[in-house]
Amino acid sequence: CGGDIMAMGALCAADEMGLRVPQDVSVIGYDNVRNARFFTPALTTIHQPKDSLGETAFNMLLDRIVNKREESQSIEVHPRLVERRSVADGPFRDYRR
C-alpha cells in the first residue's frame, strides 16, 4: 500500500471481506504514523527519518542561498522496516538469510 493511512484502510477492507491478516494477506504501510501500532493487527511499516530529512533539506537550501550554489545535490536516506503483526513470513524468507 502507498502509505500507512491507505494500509489501515486495506486492513479494514480485508476484515470486511473475511480475509485474515496476515494469514490470508499481508499488509505493509509507509510512514510509521503513530496510530499504526494500535491497529489490529499492528501495522508493519517503513519508517522514514523525517526529522533528519527535514533538517538536511533545510541545511542544503541554506547552503544554496548563502553560497549562491546552483548545482543540485543528492542525499541518501536510510529508511527502516518496523516489523509488527500485519505481515507473515513468505515462502522465500529463509532464502534471504
Automatic annotation (TrEMBL):
Keywords: DNA-binding, Repressor, Transcription, Transcription regulation. GO terms for molecular function: DNA-binding transcription factor activity; transcription cis-regulatory region binding. The keyword Transcription regulation applies. The keyword DNA-binding applies. Pfam families: Peripla_BP_3 (PF13377). InterPro entries: LacI/GalR-like_sensor (IPR046335), Peripla_BP_I (IPR028082). PANTHER family: HTH-TYPE TRANSCRIPTIONAL REPRESSOR PURR-RELATED (PTHR30146:SF148), LACI-RELATED TRANSCRIPTIONAL REPRESSOR (PTHR30146). This is Transcriptional repressor PurR.
